[in-house]
Design goal:
This protein has helices at about 15-30, 50-55, 65-70, 85-100, 120-125, 150-160, 180-190, 220, 225-245, 255-265, 385, 395-405, 415-430, 445-450; strands at about 1-10, 35-40, 75-80, 105-110, 135-140, 170, 200-210, 265-275, 295-300, 310-315, 325-330, 350-355, 360-365, 375-380, 435. With about 450 residues, the protein is an alpha/beta fold. The chain has a nine-stranded mixed beta sheet, sandwiched between helices. Strands 3-2-1-4-5-6 form a six-stranded parallel beta sheet, with helices on both faces. Helix 9 crosses helix 10 (about 255-265). The mean pLDDT is about 95. The structure holds 6-O-phosphono-beta-D-glucopyranose (BG6). 6-O-phosphono-beta-D-glucopyranose binds near residues 211, 230, 231, 325 and 354.
Length: about 450
């Protein structure tokens, strides 16, 4: 990544200080950023030093000398997201910095801002010429893209008035997690999976994104979103799409996006329940009688030939007993021919994402020494155990891919439309909301939900 400028809108916000600026520092440390100038902008009256000081708190093992070198490329400009003059000033400063640092003219503008600003920001970036209709000017929208189907469509219609699709990136950082990008590779590069990957052999699929963290000071944002808009609409449905999509013609960007988009069209919401942790309504920024869900469990079906009759369970929550993000694919039972030990455990393929990234296959095997009894065993590939030092964080990958102009990291608008349709349909069903205690694994009703559907939560 050479001789370019990155402008971050919302540079004092949570994402910028926890992820964007630390990732850019790490890329600089790895010598992958060469003469790349960063300009942070936000409403706050702070200096570049103060903005960076907050980001530095989120970086482990900072090399102070490298940090100082990195800081020399970082600037800050206070800006009102709705004032066109501020954008004109910003464009002038960006042009001056391009001269000062002898940059190529390549610009990348990153909106780490609430989606209700996306249209205005886009318009003002276009009018001030900060971003122009040029292939080497890119514009990046952080999730969530809208807060329902209608608003997402409004934003998209607005931004298409100003820029070409090839310049637009809609980001979902789950797509750049190393193990997630490995899902398609593993699935389509091994002959043993594809013949079994359908309703003849798979009993159910569970996708879990459980967090022990609560809303961490993000009450203003979270209370308007809730678990379904915050993570189901994007991260979890993108995982579902990768698991359920048909075989792409090639394992490359546009083919993968096409197949992800296609499968999301066929998702139907069948059942669900919601939860809210005790004390949520007392969090800063949350409405006193808020009914926003901090937990959701959904049963979905993909209504196509491959998946007809196979339930997909999505389950997510905040303030739970542990952080665990994983997908588990439970296969149907074989006929049990054993004299003892029937019924046997089903085979389960687990794709761990967090805290451990791994592929693990749960099999039945003979118990040592005893002739007619079974035991279970795991075949495991633990990516994070061996390779975590070599694995870049997802936002490092995002910046690298943005510079390569790789489109598979960007969610296509039809994927976004379908996933909002699914979430809107889930809200329309008015699933009951149960209160649960912090630090538990959710309300008891979650277990009853599993019993009702004759499944066991695997994760
Ligand atoms: C973000 C959500 O998109 O994803 C957060 O806004 C959530 O609420 C986070 O905590 C989870 O991401 P990860 O990478 O920590 O699993």
């Amino acid at each position: 990544m050479n001789d370019s400028i990155i402008v971050i809108f919302g540079a004092t916000g949570d994402l910028a200080k926890r992820k964007l600026l630390p990732s850019l520092y790490r890329l600089f440390f790895k010598k992958k950023l060469n003469n790349v100038v960063i300009v942070g902008t936000a409403f706050d009256d702070v200096s570049a030093f103060e903005m960076l000081r907050e980001a530095k708190k989120n970086i482990k093992d900072v090399d102070n000398e490298m940090w100082n070198d990195f800081s020399a490329y970082v600037y800050y400009q206070k800006l009102d997201f709705e004032k066109s003059n501020d954008f004109i000033d910003l464009e002038k400063n960006v042009a001056l910095l391009e001269k000062k640092h002898d940059l190529s003219g390549r610009r990348l503008v990153y909106f780490s801002a609430p989606p209700n600003y996306f249209c205005t920001l886009t318009k003002l970036c276009a009018k001030s010429k900060l971003v122009q209709k040029k292939e080497f000017h890119s514009i990046v929208y952080e999730k969530p893209f809208g807060n329902d189907f209608v608003s997402a469509r409004e934003i998209n219609t607005c931004i298409k008035n100003y820029f070409n699709e090839s310049q637009i990136y809609r980001i979902d950082h789950y797509l750049t997690k190393e193990i997630v990008s490995n899902i398609a590779m593993v699935r389509f590069s091994n002959i043993i999976f594809e013949p079994l990957w359908n309703n003849r052999f798979i009993d159910n699929i569970q996708i879990v994104l459980n967090e022990n963290a609560c809303i961490e000071g993000r009450g203003n944002y979270y209370d308007n979103y809730g678990a379904m808009r915050d993570v189901v609409q994007n991260h979890m449905l993108e995982l579902l799409a990768l698991i359920a999509m048909e075989t792409p013609e090639k394992l490359t960007g546009e083919f993968i996006r096409e197949n992800r988009a296609e499968v999301l069209r066929y998702v139907r919401v069948a059942d669900g329940l919601l939860g809210q942790y005790q004390g949520y309504a007392q969090e800063k920024g949350v409405k006193k009688k808020s009914k926003t869900e901090t937990l959701a469990a959904l049963q979905l079906y993909v209504e196509n030939e491959r998946w007809s009759g196979v339930p997909f369970y999505l389950r997510t929550g905040k303030c739970l007993d542990a952080k665990k993000t994983a997908i588990s694919i439970t296969f149907k039972n074989v006929e049990c021919l054993m004299a003892k030990g029937c019924p046997m455990d089903p085979n389960i393929l687990t794709i761990g994402i967090d805290p451990q990234s791994l592929f693990s296959l749960h099999l039945n095997a003979k118990k040592a020494g005893v002739s007619d009894e079974l035991t279970t065993m795991n075949m495991e590939y633990c990516h994070s155990c061996d390779l975590s030092a070599l694995t870049p964080g997802s936002y490092e990958t995002i910046f690298e891919e943005l510079f390569r102009q790789e489109k598979s990291i960007s969610v296509r608008f039809d994927e976004i439309e379908s996933s909002w349709n699914i979430v809107d349909a889930a809200y329309a069903k008015n699933f009951p909301l149960y209160i649960y205690k912090k630090g538990t694994n959710g309300p008891d009703e979650c277990q009853n939900f599993a019993k009702k559907h004759k499944i066991r939560w695997v994760l």
